[in-house]
Every structure is written in structure tokens, then in C-alpha cells.
């Protein structure tokens, strides 16, 4: 089964109807996050590369037609209009790694209406999930204040594909490594990890376990010291490292208890043993809040290993993302239902210094100090260039984080940066709202008349 | 790349060391959830089928050896001992769908130590993620009090594979359908869904959109009525359904606003239009808390569509799951580090009426009123029977939910059911703890002496 069937059923029913009605003119859909979750002051654009892979390979094949027919309980002949449909549209998008704000389009697709509709679910899934995790990872890097952060999340992400993405998105945010072997290989990341508690328990005691580990692994090693009693575990580790002459580049790992206090005691034990170069790795339920506390307290921790809470973005595991029709056949459209108003028209985001962004229309001139964020990344269903590279995304993110206001970078109760609407976008929203409301009152819109009204900008407007 | 590289690096380093030390005797690892997240009073065993698929196909091939060598920065020759390793062990597990409690093993693997270690990450990932989502789905079914619940989560799950699982786990919990086409086809579920707001907006007005939809889709239809103004949308839908004679089995969908109040008004409009048979579907940010409120208030909603918050288990997106060594080469082991004490030995869960479970040792006799939950599902690396069927899991879950105490079924502030430890397990834990603590004091364990001590049961013991 191709990815074309990885979709919500309504995309198929709508596409069929559009085709029957000959509604195949160009439609533009805009993908954005309406409101940020509590505790988030910015997001990080991510998911574009996998969305583009999906679009480039999109094809409704014979197996998909069978699937659609069976799930709709209709004869396969009814589905024939969808057969061999491919994606032939244009994609304009924010390259991965850029900081993005509420209401800013991450991506806009312009394609014949049935195509643009059919790809909604998959594209929204990729952008929404990855953008959420990337923002969480970026917060960890901010909280660590320069100390290395590594990813240990694979065991509790929502499936192993999500674990792969967590490793990749951590690297985008600047993580120094990942425990995820497959992701490390495929994305050229540094793989990290040495031993679990089970390893210690399988031996008669800690000294035997550490010694055996060093025997089979040349170079620096990291000994896990909290299986039984942390302080005595550190002492045993120090003795083994010294006796074997393996201290150079090696570390101990704390995985439970009061990590800050234990790190202080472990540091003292290591220093007294003449091993000031042996580093301390901390893990176990860490997230950006814990990292912030530990770094603020000056805990002598050299490496933070974050896992579960980052891999699932535990405090904000989803985003209020949307994929909304903003223009069809040259006509700007918008939705007015309560709390979900959308702004009409094809858009652009102009990044001004300090991320004081302006959301405008795609064809309006940029403000003097604004740089357009959305780039044309696909045309006629084909990528306009090679796939984006992870190191480039990492550089974009580092540069954007550096210009974010401190209040947005803060870990606790951060203040979201808010984009404003340009004059032309505000005017267009007013005109479209007027047209819809006028129509609702049962009258035909007088030509030109709608241009004079000036209703409020959409509620989601920051 | 095979699934063998979908693992944490430390599984590989540990396995290599075990092989070098000739530590290939049988080890038993137990997978369980230490403590339940706030707001959960029970879990639902899930993920076993995909874990068994992984174990049955586990094979360290040439590509995996290359991956291990590259990520460890060691010559491929060093990895040779792992080449062609397969899983040849035994798996005892709770069949999918059973209610499980904190501390109860979901699964126990007994295999040569390197094998049992290497499979940890993948197995833990599957059980942990799926068990979390299944419990969330079960809570929705309880809250809906008999009204149908359907799954709309695919667009915001953590990747599309997680979306597939959400659809499957919803069905396990008793959901009536899913929007997920691929999952519906593969798992023989009812696919549901008709139109999005974009569909309405692509037409000149709602009446044109509804009429066109009915034209291309015979049979019952569901019209989305909240694109502009909900009450007038309902009126338009009623008129189109009546004019076209398509009311039979059809519905309207509310997706925003105060769903309870809007449903009351929509019901009135439909009834006044002589359409008492047209049903009301509600969606938009729903979870078990909203369903509980709506059903308690008697909202005239006929079908609940839940999505994002269920697909990511938003209030509890991960579980405090563990995969712990409990026995090696016939020697029971346990971990004593703070807050993460584990109980030693191969175990069994005896289900007593009302889920008043007893966790005991695998070889002890069941209590008179207790039925063992863990079954042998794999032996010598081969499944002992055909894959578990989803309808069977659904039946198990329905039966177990029916015997859960009301206090555990309650949606707000439920009271967890707590399993107790059997006498033999309590005794074993005391003996092993004594052995470890005695060893830590530097003395050899006097034969037989350890059996007389009786320390507290492990902290996680419910």
C-alpha cells in the first residue's frame, strides 16, 4: 500500500466530489499553528523534508483504489477518477530550523484542488509533530547553557519512527549525540551510550561489571553508578578507572535520585581519587525545566541525557495546527466559525530583527528591514533543489535563537513573540469577511462596496 | 537496514561484553509500568503483537554489523560475535486488551542474556506507547456511556505509524470507526468521514457545497455546519437533506464552539424541520473529560469524534515503563537505587474478581480465586499460536472494564486499583535485598542466613 492511503477518509470523499464538479482550479492551502501551547513562546519549523518526500512520491495506485473502494463500500469504478493522481503543485515553505511564531504559515501548497486536498493529512501530520518536538529540543539546548545535551528517547517515543525523528530533531536543535543507532547512522550523528542497570546486575558486583565492560570496550567508557548505592558506586567506578588507567575521557552516569546533590558528592569522590577529568553524565526524567534548575544551581554535571519527556514533548505533545484553504481559483477564502477564524490569501512571513515578524500577502513588497521566510521548494511536483541538510537547519535554528528576545527564550513562563499583520493582509481579511457576511444576509455583494469595510483582524492574529 | 539497529547503542555495547565474557546463560527481563501517571487508575495491555512481530523477525544482518561498527567507531571485525544473532527465547505476556495495574508485568522475556538485552529498546517502545494510548481510548469509551466514539487522530499523532496504532487501539477499546483509511483497510475497521471546512469554502456557499457532496456520494451523508455560522449552517443542511430526500441515516457535524449548547439548538432546528432521524456528530478538541461533561449534561450528541488528545494521550503521553533484569542464570536480581527499586524473579499476575490482583512468582500456585494473566506466547523464538486478533482483545478489554471498581472507572480523580504481592514474592525480595546489602558491607553471604530477614517490599509495590 502506498502512502496515498495514509489519509483521513474525508480527503478522498472531497477529492471525488471536486473531480465530479470539475473543480480542479488551483487552490492554496496554508499550514500554520493557530495558538502556541502554554509554556511555548516560539516554535521551530520542522517536518518539511519528510512532507516533500511524501509529495514527490505521491501516487494513487491500483492498490490505493482498492483500499478507497473497500473503505467507502463503493465499486472500484466509482474511484476511477482518482487513479494515477500525482502531486503536480507548488510548495512554498519555511526551511527547517527557522523559529516560527503563532499564525505564521510553515508551508503553503498551491495545486489543483483535489490534489491539494488529498495530501492534507500526511503533510499536516509531519509538520505538526516534528515542529512540536523540535521546539522542545531547542528549549533543552537553551536550558543547558552550553553544556552538551544528548538524546535517550527511543524507548518511550510514540513508535520507533517517532524515535527516529526525535533523534534528528535533537540534532537540529544542537544536541551532541543520540542513543538511537539507526538514526545516528542515517543522519550522521554521534551515537552515545554504554550500559544499563541490567548489565551491572548480571555480574556479581559493580567492580566486576565495570572491569568486564572496560575489557571489551577500548577508549573512554561511562560507568553507570546508581544501581545499588550511588556514592559507593562512584567510589567503585573511580577505583576501577584508576586501576585500569582508563580515566582519560571517561565518565560516570547518574540516573536517579537528587541529581544535583549526587553530582556534587560524585565530583568530590572523583576529585579526591585524583580523577578531575572524569566527567559526570546525568539522566533520568530530565527535561528543560530540570536542566534549567541544575545549571542555575551550578550542579557539576558535564553532559545532560534527556529522553522520554523530550521525545514526546510531554508538556505540549501536540500543536493547534491547521491546513486551511486560503484561496481557490483566484478567490481568497476564510473561515469564520468561533475561535477558528482564518486569514485569507497566499501569504509570506517577513522576518524583521528580533523576530518582530510581519505576516503579509505573498505578492506584497517586503518591509525595508524584513526578509521573506517562505521559499519555493517544489514546483510542478518536483523539488526545486536538493533535500535540505540537517547541519543547515541547525545553523538556521542557532541564528534565530540568538536573535529571540530573552523573554521568549526563558524556560519558565516565557512571553511569546507575536507577529503582526501587514496592511494589505488586514485589508484583504476585511474585504473577504464583508463579502461572506453580506452574502449571509442574502444580498449580492455590490461591486467595490466590500472594500470600504474594516472589520477586526482574525481572532488568531497575534 | 533491519529493525535490529532500531535500538539504543548501549544494548549493543552490553551484548558485545556479555558475549566476550561468555555470559550467555538464560536471563529473564520483566517489562512493567512502575507508577501510573496522574489521572490513570488502570492501563490496558497493548503492543504485544508488534513486539512479537519484531522478535520473530529479529536478525543481526551484515548491514546491521556495518551500522554498529560505524556508530561505535570500531572495526566491523569487532562486531563479528553479533553477526546472525536471532531471538531464540521464550516470551510470557498478558494478551492485548487486558486491564493491567502498576507493577504488573506486561511481558517477560527469558533468553540468552545478549539476546534478551538487545531487544529491550524496541520491545519497551512498543509496549509503553501502545499501552498508554489504549488506556486513553478506554477512558473515552467509558465517558461516552454507550454512545459511539470514532477516531480522527491521524493528522496530529507522532508520525503516521503512531496514527495507525491509534486507530487500532481505539478499535480495541470499542471505538465504532476511524478516519484512518490505511488502518481501516488493514485492521478491518469502519472508515468514517465526509468533508472539511475547506470543502465548504471552495464552493460559493454552504447549500451549493452540501448539494454537490450529496450528488457524488450516494447513501447517508454528514454535513459540516460550522464553517460560517453554526445555526444557519444547520438550517441550510436541513433544507438540503429534506429537498434531496437524503435525511435517512444522515447527520450533521459540529466542530467548534460550545458543543453542548450548539447540539441542543441544532437538534431543535432539525426536529422542527421534520428530521428527527438526522444525527448529530460532535468533534473538535474532544477527550474523555469533554465527553464526560457532555454525556452528563445530556447533550443531544449521537456520535463523538475524538482526535488529537486521544492519539497522543495528551494528559499522559508516556508511561513510567521499565524493562528490568529480574533473574540471571537462575539467580534472582533486583535494583535498589532510590525510587526505582525492582522486585526480583520471574513473575505471574493472578487476576482475582474486581481486578484485586496478586503479583506472584511464575512457579507458585495461583490463589483459589485467581486466574494467571501471563501466557506463553513465544517459545524458541517462534510464536506458540497465531497472531492475536483485535476482536479478541476488544472482548478482553470490555470484560475487564466491566469488573473494574467504579472508583477506578471514574473519569476525574479516579482511584487506582492496587495489586498486592504474594507471600513467596515478598520473601524472595527480602532475601535478595539482604544478599545485596550484605555483600555491600563487604562480607560473604552466610549460607541460608539471608532467608531470615524481612525488609519492606519494593517501593513501587502497589
TrEMBL record, chains A, B:
CDD domains: NAPRTase_A. Its EC number is 6.3.4.21. Transiently phosphorylated on a His residue during the reaction cycle. Phosphorylation strongly increases the affinity for substrates and increases the rate of nicotinate D-ribonucleotide production. Dephosphorylation regenerates the low-affinity form of the enzyme, leading to product release. One of its GO terms (biological process) is NAD+ biosynthetic process via the salvage pathway. Belongs to the NAPRTase family. The keyword S-adenosyl-L-methionine does not apply. The keyword Iron does not apply. This is Nicotinate phosphoribosyltransferase. Pathway: Cofactor biosynthesis; NAD(+) biosynthesis; nicotinate D-ribonucleotide from nicotinate: step 1/1. Keywords: Glycosyltransferase, Ligase, Phosphoprotein, Pyridine nucleotide biosynthesis, Transferase. It catalyses: 5-phospho-alpha-D-ribose 1-diphosphate + nicotinate + ATP + H2O = nicotinate beta-D-ribonucleotide + ADP + phosphate + diphosphate. PANTHER family: NICOTINATE PHOSPHORIBOSYLTRANSFERASE. InterPro entries: Aldolase_TIM, N/Namide_PRibTrfase, NAPRTase_N, Nic_PRibTrfase-Fam, Nic_PRibTrfase_pncB, Nicotinate_pribotase-like_C. Residues 149-265 form the Nicotinate/nicotinamide phosphoribosyltransferase domain.
